[in-house]
Amino acid sequence: MTKHVIETPEQSALPVVGSDATFPVRRVYCIGRNYAAHAIEMGHDPDREAPFFFQKNPNNLDPSGEFPYPAHSHDVHHEAEMLVALQSGGRDIPIAEALSHVYGYGLALDMTRRDLQGEMKKAGRPWEIGKAFEQSAPCGPVFPAQQVGHPTQGRISLKVNGDLRQDGDLNQMIWKVPEMIAYLSQYFELAAGDVILSGTPAGVGPVQVGDVIDMSIEGLGVLNVKVA
């Protein structure tokens, strides 16, 4: 048995609906500007440009139901997204075969230190300081595709303190789930445990300490998160 020079870090994992076992997370890929209206509100052309991705860390995913407001930021935004959990992977996966690699789906928030992200954009630097901070992806449990199928449409919405902020439909994605998987597999070797956050509809905005976020996707339930 291999010995390590330090204690083995805890495996990041998500609960699974209807199971005592968990879904272990290997990598987290996030697609940017995947809803036309959101691209417009962020000042970009909504035409179908080539997709682009950034990454969060596996331990950024947090099913605790609490989001601690992060340090060094005064403008933290919510972004409601559908989470896609892979059970297998590979290279150069054909679009027609992509969904066979999906284990299930869930709800997630891509919380963003917008002010810090904006500074990095202006300087032409990576976004991790704005995207990949601790507990930056509150999320719910994974729903196995065997139970819920492969959602291609359905309302995705988010409320803050009861006020509707984001309201869209999964069918508004510019790049669909099979296309995202196929594209990513051209540049990375995907594998079991990989997670994709599939983009957010328009209406992103700031949260404050004490706010209550309620996110829902038709067929995948509700995610309740308190900003601590």
TrEMBL record:
Gene3D superfamilies: Fumarylacetoacetase-like, C-terminal domain. InterPro entries: Fumarylacetoacetase-like_C, Fumarylacetoacetase_C_sf. Keywords: Hydrolase, Metal-binding. Transmembrane segments: none annotated. It comes from the Bacteria. One of its GO terms (molecular function) is hydrolase activity. Pfam families: FAA_hydrolase. Residues 28-227 form the Fumarylacetoacetase-like C-terminal domain. Coiled coil: none annotated. PANTHER family: ACYLPYRUVASE, FLUTATHIONE S-TRANSFERASE. This is Fumarylacetoacetate hydrolase family protein. It comes from Thalassococcus lentus.
